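Give me the fold.
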Amino acid sequence: MSAIDVRLEALLAGDAPRDADEARRAALLDELRGATLRAPDTLRARVLASAPAPRRAFVPRPSRRLVFVAVPAVLGLAIAAALVHGLTGSGPQPVAGAPHTPGVAQGGAPSTFQTFTNAGSGGAVLAPTIDSARAKAAPAVGTPGRLQHTDASLQLRVPDSAHLASATSAATRIATSLGGYAQSVVYRTPQQGDGAAYLELRVPAQNVQAALAKLGALGTIVSQEISVQDLQHALEVESAQVAQLRRTIAALEQALRNPALPDAQRVLLQIKLAESKRALDQRLNARKGTISAGTSARISLVIGTAKSIVVPVTHHRGRLGRMLHSALGFLGLEATVALYALIVISPFAVLAALAWFLARLRRRRDEQRLLAA
């Protein structure tokens, strides 16, 4: 380093000048320290041209305090809605049938449910009915004079294994005596002495009422369900289709007897005749199945001892219990809806977060490029 540079460093550090030349240099340094520097206009124009254009923010970020206010508010509204639903939905509880013991009907009769099918529309309607402990007759269902298929299920309870064996044998004899048969019989008696029998019976449709009455007398009825499906309309439609196909086949056969029929047209008529005969066979089989289903009834019978047949216990809740049960159920429904909405919205939330991150990364890159310029 030269002597001049050493003296400049000393003057910058605050050393006193030694001669007039150093005094002039010290004055110049003081002027430079107090002067305000201004960039040239060309440099300012270059910086402004390279600056990135201002971009509008996507969504303003909410305050963190808003989260602590919104979350409790939403939870409070959900709980309030559940309580309102519980209050409005906890009306007086319907009186249920009294429990019964084997062989004795208490309070009139135990309540069971039977499913009856509307004969006109084929839809099932669930209606409560009353049975005696040992039913004398099954409920009258269906419409006389119409083809209908009946499905019935019966669950009986007997005192012990000896009564189980005799009731199982009697059930098969009842089905045979009414013109039906036992399609399957499963008889189980474990070593503990309890047991159950599962029977699938088929009886003529006109004897289903008598069959249910006799089967119900073999033990204590635990549950009974009857479903009737109307087949009259299906039979009429299939019969009309069969008649139409037979007329078509007769007309095609008559046309094929014409000796002046061209060969090409004869081949087409023969193909159409074969298709019509095949369709007729299908419609005849379908009608046969419909008639078979309407002329026989299916009865599913379960006979079991006291321990193998469990009677459902009805829990009687007070108004407060019903209100809480309804409110909890409504809260569960709200949670399910919220979870479903979260699942649906989560992909869009991820895309929005990714777009925000990319925009922020691009803004930072523009700022670094500007600083580098």
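The first strand starts at residue 111 and ends at 117.
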